[in-house]
Design goal:
single chain, alpha+beta, Double Stranded RNA Binding Domain, DNA polymerase, domain 1, hpI Integrase, Chain A, three-stranded antiparallel sheet
Length: about 400
């Protein structure tokens, strides 16, 4: 058997020569002094030669470990040369399967699956911009500490909720990698509880009935752009999200059936949603309908009939009415409706169906959509009548004062 001293002191000669260690392992000493490990073996009756690296980068002990490993492969009926090629291919593939590459595939799948443009923009921002430090890392090698470092950097900037959502987005990429056999674990799982819990900030809303009546009076009296006033009125009457109201299309409104049908691609939960239109809602729509005769949008902006009103325009109008952002926002009309209706004892399931909230139970979700339409029609009309009553109370209080 060879010794390390013997290999280290071996001098080059006119011709290459070998120093044998046994079991087919030997060092080939080249004429220019290079010392290369080689392993001679037989497989399927043929003699083969396998390169194990150069000395001293590969030391004597490591070379012997490799020899034993090759023996185990041979005993299992595997050709060490073939296995070496397969290992190289796997390493090359792993190097190409970076977090960035897998994330790009994951995003493409989300988009082809019908994810909303706003959702895609948000996901790309998180996975391509915020998670950029992980981009070139082989996804199978990413450790929890690396992900935590990215998340903590976001958290320290004060964006706790963003850090929480980013952990979920990164976890989605790893779950896709596991499903496509490019990773064996999700490093975001051990990080649950590692981030500071974000402070929940509820959207400002007026839920007192008298104050809500005063707000609706202010909306009715607003002298700005007619579609902006109508948008705020419809926000309150339909209980829909600002983005849904702003994006309302003429083709979605059926006056004869008193129905507004919002397609799935415009809904947050990616499911179509039918909104019963009260007589008050229909009156508002008929009043502003001529303003969009030459366009598709029901509530176009003041600058172009091809562009919808902005949510900022809605909130700005509320500020001009004298309401601070801490008092009410465009999103707050939904919270107001939910709070008042629940306090008055209306069926919570009907309210949730009207708000287009998705029940976590699939059976109940299907039942709610199929069974609550008559109740929702009645609820929306009663809610509109209640708002009218709130306004009358506010006017009476104003006169008395």
């Amino acid at each position: 058997m060879l010794s390390d001293l013997e290999i280290r002191t071996a001098k080059p000669q006119e011709k290459p020569y070998k120093l044998f260690d046994g079991g087919g392992l030997h060092v080939l000493v080249q004429t220019k002094g290079a010392k290369l490990w080689r392993l001679k073996y037989r497989f399927a009756g043929k003699e083969k030669l396998l390169s194990l690296g150069a000395y001293p980068s590969v030391g004597l002990a490591v070379a012997r470990e490799k020899r034993e490993e090759m023996k185990r492969l041979l005993a299992a009926g595997t050709d060490p040369s073939v296995q070496k090629k397969l290992d190289k291919l796997a390493a090359a593939k792993a190097a190409n399967d970076t977090f960035g590459a897998v994330a790009a595939e994951h995003l493409a799948n989300q988009e082809s699956g019908g994810a909303a443009p706003t959702t895609m923009a948000k996901n790309r921002w998180m996975l391509e911009i915020l998670a950029a430090p992980l981009k070139d890392r082989p996804i199978a090698q990413v450790a929890p500490i690396e992900v935590l470092d990215v998340l903590k950097h976001i958290e320290k900037s004060g964006r706790r909720e963003t850090a929480r959502k980013l952990r979920g987005a990164i976890g989605g990429v790893f779950r896709y990698a596991i499903a496509t056999l490019r990773a064996s674990n999700d490093p975001t799982v051990p990080l649950r509880g590692a981030l500071v819990k974000p402070t929940v900030q509820h959207r400002a809303a007026i839920t007192d009935e008298r104050e809500l009546g005063a707000l609706m009076c202010s909306v009715d009296e607003y002298e700005g752009w007619p579609t902006l006033r109508a948008a705020l009125q419809l926000l309150a009457l339909t209980m829909m999200r600002p983005g849904d109201v702003r994006g309302m299309r003429r083709a979605e409104v059926d006056f004869d059936k008193a129905l507004w049908r919002v397609p799935a691609e415009r809904m947050k939960m990616r499911r179509p949603h039918d909104v019963p239109l009260s007589t008050q809602s229909l009156a508002i729509l008929r009043d502003i309908w001529p303003l969009s005769d030459h366009g598709d949008l029901v509530l176009p902006s003041i600058r172009s009939i091809q562009r919808p009103l902005s949510e900022n325009a809605m909130n700005s109008a509320l500020r001009r009415m004298g309401y601070a952002k801490e008092e009410v926002t465009a999103h707050g009309f939904r919270a107001a409706a939910s709070t008042v209706l629940n306090e008055r004892g209306f069926n919570p399931d009907v309210i949730e169906a009207a708000l287009a909230h998705q029940d976590k139970n699939a059976i109940r979700r299907a039942y709610n959509r199929a069974s609550y339409w008559p109740e929702r029609v009645k609820l929306m009309q009663e809610w509109a009548d209640m708002l009218d009553q709130f306004k009358k109370t506010a006017v009476s209080t104003r006169r008395a004062a």
